[in-house]
Structures are given as C-alpha cells and as structure tokens.
Amino acid sequence: MNKRIVIKKTGGIDALELIEEPLPVLNVTEVRVRVRASGVAFGDILLRKGAVPGTSYPVTPGYDIVGEVEAIGTAVTRFKTGDLVAGLPVTGGYTTFICLPETELVPVPAHLPPAEVVSVLLNYTTAFRLLTKAANLKAGNSVLVHGAAGGVGTAVLQVGKVLGIRVYGTVSTAKMAVVQQQGGIPVDYTRTDFVAEIRRLTGEGVDAVLDPIGGTNLSRSYDALNERGTLVLFGVSSSLEGGGNPTIKTLKTMARWLLLKLRFDARRVVTSFISSTDKGVGIYDDMAMLIQLLAEGKIKPVIAKTFPLAEAGKAQAMLEQEKPIGKLVLIP
Predict the structure, then answer these.
(1) Where would I find the beta strands (DSSP E) of the chain?
(2) Cα separation of 65 and 87, whole Å?
(3) Nearest to 118 by CA among 45, 55, 33, 185
(4) Cβ proximity of 182 and 158 under 8 Å
(5) Sequence-separated (6 or more) residues with CB below 8 Å from residue 169
(6) Are 90 and 54 in contact (CB under 8 A)?
(7) Residue-by-residue pLDDT tens, the chain, 332 positions
C-alpha cells in the first residue's frame, strides 16, 4: 500500500490528510520510486493556503524526493531496481511511492544519505540558478540574499562560496553566526537598516539582491542594488504573514515587481521560480552537478530537523512559524 499526504481543500495544517491507497500504477516510460526522503518547502505552504494560482485540488505537496527504484516500466533503460535516484516533481513528494518519467530522475551515488541529497535538490538548484542564470553573477561579484539562515539562504551562501561570489545575508541577531560559518557576511536586519548597511559595506550597493519575501520589501531590495544591479524575486513569503487573503497578497507583490521593472534606469528586475514549467530546461543537469559537489564534500546541506510523513503538518508549522536554520525533511 501507498501512504501520501493530500490537500483536499485549502486551509491550516489540518488540511493535510494522510491517506492509504494502492501503489501508483506504472506506465512504460516511468520509474516507481520508494521515497526515502522528501523536502518541505515554503511553496508547499503556499499550496496548502491556496496561494498558488491555477492549482487544482485535491493535490499532494512536495517539491523534491530521493528514493530507491522499486519497479521500472518496460521501456525504461536508464535505471534498474535498487538504484538510488532523485527527482523534482514540484508536487506529489509527500508520499511513500511515486511514479516519475525516467527523464525526470537523476542518479544518486549509493553512499549518500537521502536526507542530505533531498536537501540539495530544490534549495541548491534554486540557489545555483538564482546566482548564475537569473542574476548572471560571476566570480568577484556581490549579492545580498534575504533569509540567509534558511534552506535556500544557506544554499546561496555555500554555492556562492564555490563560485567565488561575495555573499551578504540578512538574518536576525541570533542567526548571524550561521552566515559567518557558511562563509557569508551577515547583516542584522533587526538592528540596522539593511539598505544603509549594504551601502556602508559596499559603497555603491550589490550586484544582485535575491528576495524570497516580496511585498513592501521589494522596493527596499531594489534600493540596495548598485546602478546596474539585478533584483531577483524568487518567493512571496510575505503572503503568509499576518491576516488577509494570501492570493491577493501574492498578486500585490507581482504588481510591485512590475512597477519596479518599469523604472527607467539600468537596474534589472526579474523573477525566478522553479515550477513544473521549468522541467527539462537544464534543471536535471544542474541537479546532477550539485549532487556531485555534495559527493565531493564541496557543499554540505544544513538539515534543521527530520519528521515522519505523518507529521507533515508539524513540519510545515515549524517552517512557517519558526523559520528554522536549514532544511526540513520528511522521512516516509
């Protein structure tokens, strides 16, 4: 039997329902994976709260999975049963078994812990694509990332270090040491104005700002750029804060983004979201490269805590309320 988490209607963590059902049916080009680790992301919370336009319910959340090949379709040639693989389904990861096309899976060295690998998939792929594809940064450039102690934030710090990029990170006072340990330069947003502090530290602003918050924070991120810098919006966590309709808040963020984009200066304003439409656009090559960096010890994901699948609600509550250091992982 298969167990998975289903959101039948939007709401609080009680909207996450654990169900039992027969194993998912395999088609000829698919691989059925026994999931050993699944990542927990802010996007999963947005999905639960109804803040992802175009979503049809019921739906199973879960961006990224790592597991063992349990069965293969008759046309599958790249994998065999027992192989360890990684996938980025975007939805469907909160489960014990999942069927995915073999083209959407990446091989994983058997000695790597699944929880570490799954912590690399969404977060580090996002970090790498933000730095290199969205912001077009090179060695010697500078970047500011908000939420630097979180899952994507710590990934940006580590990937930036590998690429030779100088990374500044906004954090609370209690988390400043985390940024320093990961090779970044902390900016305490609780005690200083981050725009003024970035100007003080850099003189002219940074080459890029990576903003997962949105809302009114966007214009301040824009002000932290140098005259040819790039603002990258890659999240809308402000939509989850306070009261009000999260969908409306998300739409307001996008309106602010558009107004900034229409300014007549040399600064760029772009978005970068990993979604189902990104599949196949070099994303699996990026995942494979980052898994190799993990195997070589050049990156080391920070895992905040692991939970059993049945406690997915507790994991989401912790992510939303506590904003822990590093990644939260479900272990089915």
Answers:
(1) 2-7, 16-21, 30-40, 65-72, 84-87, 97-101, 105-107, 142-146, 166-171, 185-188, 206-211, 225-233, 268-271, 303-308, 327-331
(2) 5
(3) 33
(4) yes
(5) 144, 145, 146, 147, 148, 149, 153, 156, 157, 179, 184, 185, 186, 187
(6) no
(7) 999 999 999 999 999 999 999 999 999 999 999 999 999 998 999 999 988 878 899 999 999 999 999 999 999 999 999 999 999 999 999 999 999 999 999 999 999 999 999 999 999 999 999 999 999 999 999 999 999 999 999 999 999 999 999 999 999 999 999 999 999 999 999 999 999 999 999 999 999 999 999 999 999 999 999 999 999 999 888 887 777 788 888 889 999 989 999 998 999 999 987 765 556 568 999 999 999 999 999 999 999 999 999 999 999 999 999 989 999 999 99
CA atoms of 48 and 9, how far apart (whole Å):
8
**3-class state of residue 92 by DSSP:** coil
Q: Token pair of 161, please?
A: 């270090």
- Residue labelled with tokens 């009000």: 244
Structure tokens at 55: 């979503």
| Integer Cα distance of 99 and 102 in angstroms | 9
Q: Are 317 and 15 in contact (CB under 8 A)?
A: no
pTM strictly above 0.85:
yes
Q: Comparing C-alpha atoms, which of 210, 146, 152, 158 is closest to residue 184?
A: 158
CA 102, CA 109: separation in Å to the nearest integer?
Answer: 17
* Distance, CA of 10 to CA of 171 (rounded, Å): 30
User: Mapping DSSP to helix (H, G, I), strand (E, B) and coil, where does residue 44 land?
Assistant: helix
Structure tokens at 85: 């693989």
